[in-house]
Every structure is written in C-alpha cells, then in structure tokens.
Amino acid sequence: MLFQFLMRSQWRLLALVAVASLLAAALEGAGLSMCFPLFQGSSMDLGPNVPVFMRDYLGFFEKFALADRMRLIACLLVIIVFVKLLVMQWNIVLVLRLRNEVVRHYRREAVRALFSTGMSRFNKKRISDLNLIIDGFVDQHVAAIVDLVGNTLQYFFTSFVLLAVLLCLSLKMTFVAFLVVAVGGWALSFMSAVIYRHSLRLAQTKSAFNQTLFDLLHGLKVIRVFGREQMMAERFDQTVVDSNESYAQSTTWTLMVGPIFEFIGAVIIAGILLAGAFLLGSGGMTIGVVLTFLIILVRMIPPFKALNHARGALAARMPSLKIVEALIEEKGDDVIQGEVPFDGLRQQIEIAGLSFRYEAGGPQVLNDVSLVIPKGARVGIAGTSGAGKSTFVELLLRLYDPSAGRILVDGRNIQEYSRSSWLAKVGVVAQDPFLFNDTIRANIAFAKPGATDQEVEAAAHKAYAHGFIQAFPLGYDTLVGERGALISGGQRQRIAIARAILRDPEIFLFDEATSALDAESEACVQKAINEISSDKTVITIAHRLSTLTGSDMIIVFEQGRVAQCGRHHELLTMDGAYRRFVETQTI
Predict the structure, then answer these.
(1) What is the rounded CA–CA span in Å between residue 423 and residue 397?
(2) Spatial distance between the Cα atoms of 320 and 199, rounded to a whole number of angstroms
(3) How many degrees, rounded to 5, is the angle at CA 397 between CA 395 and CA 400?
(4) How many CB atoms within 10 Å of residue 210?
(5) 194, 258, 331, 544: which could form a disulfide with 113 (CB 3.0–4.6 Å)?
(6) Is 572 helix (H, G, I), strand (E, B) or coil?
C-alpha cells in the first residue's frame, strides 16, 4: 500500500528525489575520477587493459603539465563538491516533504477507517493499541521507511555510478570484488529474515506494554481501592521485561549487520590487493589504475553498507507498517448506508419484530420487540440492567443494524435513509457524556459548527446551564478538562443537553441521563428535559422511575422483550415488572 501510494499520488515528488539522488551520485563519481589523472602523474601509459573511454578522459588532462593539472583538479574538486552539497540539501528537503505527505496520508486514512468501521468491530479493539498505531507506528516506523527509501535511492545511484567507473578501470578486479559481495549478500539476507521475526515480536510486546500502562493509569483509583498495587506492579514489570528482551534481540541482530559488512569490506579490499599485485606483476595494469580502483572501492563501501543496513532496517520496520495498513484496510461499515434524505418525522416510529445479537452465535439481546412511538410522544423505557434498553437506543442511532425485524420511520425502513440525514434530526445525551478537553463554548458548539455566541447561550439557557457557566471566572471560555473532569457530573450533563439542544433535533434520546446525579442536579436536568419535551419526540431511559412518571408511554424491557407498555398510573395497577420496580425504589 505504501509504494502504491508513492507511485500513484507522490510520483512527481518521488521522481524529483530520484533526479536529485542521481545528480549527487554523478557528482560523486566525477569527483573521485579526479584521482586517476593525479595518480598517473606525467605518464599516460595505461597498459593494454584500460578501455578507450578512460584513455579519452585522460587525454583531456594530458596537455597540462603536472603542476597545472593539480591546480585544475583542485578547482574542479571544489566546484564539484559545492554543487553536490547543494544537490544533497535539495534532496533532504524533498525527502522531508515526501515523509510529511506519507505521515499525513496514513494518519488521515487510519482515522477515516475508524470513522467507517462498524461499532461491533471497533468495540473489539483496544484504545491503547489504536493510539500506538496511529501515533507511534506511523511516526516512528512508516516515516522511517520513507526516509530509508529517499536515502536508499541516493546510495543506489552512487553505488551504480562508482561500479561503472570500476568496470571501466578493471573488469577482472571488479569481478573479484563482487564475488565476495555475493557471498556476503546471502549472509545478510538470512539476517534480514531473523530481524523481521524479532521485530514482529517487538511490536507485539510493545502493544502489551502500552495496554498495561493504559489500564494502570486509568484504573489507578480502582487498583488502590482493591489493594492490587503489587499485582499490577508485577504485571507491568513483566510487560517491561518482555518488551526489553524483544528490543534487545531485535537490536542485537540489527547491530550485527555493521560489523559483518565491515568484515566483508576488508575481505574485498584484500582480494583487490591480491588481484592488483598479480596484474601489476604481469604488466597488465599500472599503479595509477590500482590506486584509483582502491580509492573508489573504499568510497563505494559506505553507500553499499548503507544499502544493506537499509535492508535490515526495512525488515525491522515492515511489521509495524503491515499493522498500520491492516487497520486502514479493515475499514468498512457493518451498517447499511441508505440514500434517501430524511427531512423530518411526520407520523411515527414503528418497531416491528426487532431482534438483535452483537455477534453471530452470541446471546440474543433483543427478541421480537414491537411497538409504536407517535410523533411528539414522551416515551420512557425502564428495565433491569442487561434488559436491552441501551441496545434499543443504539439501533435507533444506526450504530448497528437489526439481526431481524425492522425499524420503520413514517412507514419507510430506517436503513433506506442516509445515516447522516437521520442523525441530523436526533439529539443524544448519554449517562456519561463525553466532553472534549476544550472550553464550554466549544463543547456546546460542537453540535453546530459556526454557531454564534447568542445561539450557544440560548441553548445553555434551555438546558439550565447558563447560571453555573456564568459563575465561572472565565464563563463560557472555561476549560472543562479531559472528559470534563474539571466540572461536576450534573454540569457535564447540562452542557451535553445544551449541545443536543443547539442541534435543534426533532427526536431526543436520553440514555440514563440522571442515573449518576445527586437530587439537586437531577432536578435541574429533569427541568431541562421537560423544557424541550413540549414539541419534540423524547425517548428517555431511566433507572430512577420518578423521571418517567410524566411520560405518555412507558415501555418495560425484560430479558430483551417488551414485558409491559402503558402510562405510569396504568402500570401501577398491574401486577408486573414495573410495579415491582416502583415498590423496590420506594422501599
């Protein structure tokens, strides 16, 4: 996927990197070739094995005396190195641009994949893993691969240019050098495979470490309350040990590449010295050719070493790249996307034979639920924990599709409506509303980008939140902290209600909006709910049945089924689940 993206979307930038790398390589070869006319001295007798191309090259310098030739070469070297410096700087800038484009692409695609992933699959993922993939893996590994690609092009072209010069100097000595290189390359290929395996293990242990650290930080209060500090410390220590061992093994094999390649380089130079001595003794080569060959060969070792290091580094980075790409390729919603725009509720919402289970073969959460919610009705939903109340709301929010049955809105299956147009008419307030680590104003305005201050304050008035907001020194510009930790639970709920009101939906869903509040906060939230219930369709889930007494209809869930349905006073006259709930709460 990475190389497809580079070739499809960044081919121009990649081509410029290749051009800059080729220019730098050509200048490197030109600079090193200056050694040849110097080492030949005043003699241009090259022997029978030097090709015509090199004879013509030396012919340019032959007309200069040795001292003048040295001055000319000195000037040419300064010019060549200066131009090469400019080209290499240009290449660095191009590679950085390419790196930033790739990081932006992968992070954007990863987030889009999360937005389009069905909730059933998303719920199976760990937040710490997602954070590690989108932040750490993309920044540390995917970006490093781009850096390797950019640098490898320059190393490759440099090796190619210098190899061409070596071939022009002596075909026999070049053959000896690369015979040793072939054997060394086989050894390095074996090492790359080992590095890949250890790097995959390292990625897995880092994921376990991050998950344990996430649990420790977010569950510190629970850990202390239950006295499990020692157990969690030992668990964390084990993940540290596993991660360190994996890192040590991966790093050990990666660092071995350098010394082994250095040994290969020494063997190559020794072979060239032996071959050069033989050719000198037979009169088939001059000392100038041998010295020039050795200098170019020694200069060729660093880029060739870098190429082999890049092989090992790529092997170490590829597992992380595959994990990132697997996350991106997994995108695809489980929910059917309709195309009909929803322009408002006119008559009713009908639930017909609705059944649902979160996983195939899993327990049935809802079973054959049927009911009708008229437009403008205030509907209360009661039931024990696990009875299916919140799942029912999640199906209304199109987070999942039913396993069986239908939800009909004005006679049309809800799946036929586009989800965005349907949700634009629905406002939700959850039991534990999520607030962004931003100002109160920004949290309310999140429901309506571009909302004016007057609209934000009007929504806060309706939610009975304006009073306590104004009491803060910074008013609407007060920061609420992470997940709203700097304000109380009741204040979070009223800000969430204000956010829902600002959207001006036709349907409100309150999922246990008052269950965790004290009596005073509950009274404020309940007044806010009553305030907006006059001309809206309101569906309220509540454990505290006092919240539901004014509902037009109360639906009682038991074990995924509708056990009872009616008004508060009607259900009290029946010997059923609702009456038992009321009696229990009264006691």
Answers:
(1) 7
(2) 8
(3) 45
(4) 20
(5) 331
(6) helix
Query: How many Cα neighbours within 13 Å face the side chain of 431?
Result: 11
The pLDDT value given to residue 587 = 41
Where b means 16+ CB within 10 Å and e means fewer, 2-38 reads: beeebeeebeebbebbbbbbbbbbbbbbbbbbbbbbb
| Burial of residue 83 (number of CB atoms within 10 Å: 0-12, 13-18, 19+) | middle
CA distance 316 to 193: 9
Closest CA to 562 of 437, 382, 425: 382
pLDDT digits (tens, 9 = 90+) for 529-547: 777 766 788 888 877 777 7
DSSP 157-179: HHHHHHHHHHHHH-HHHHHHHHH
Using alpha carbons, list the distances in angstroms from residue 110 to 324, 326, 331: 8, 10, 9
- Which CATH superfamily, name and number, covers 376-388+418-586? P-loop containing nucleotide triphosphate hydrolases (3.40.50.300)
| d(C-alpha 429, C-alpha 204), whole Å | 37
- Tokens 């939800």 correspond to what residue? 407
What secondary structure, in 3-state letters, does 471-494 show?
HCCCHHHCECCHHHCCCCHHHHHH
pTM: 0.60
For 503-522, how does the pLDDT look when each residue is reduced to its tens digit (9 = 90+)? 888 888 888 766 555 666 66
CATH 1.20.1560.10 fits 2-329, yes or no: yes
Closest CA to 509 of 450, 455, 433: 433
Map out the domains of the chain as residue ranges.
2-329, 376-388+418-586
CA-based Rg of the chain, rounded to a whole angstrom? Answer: 36
CB atoms within 10 A of CB 185: 17
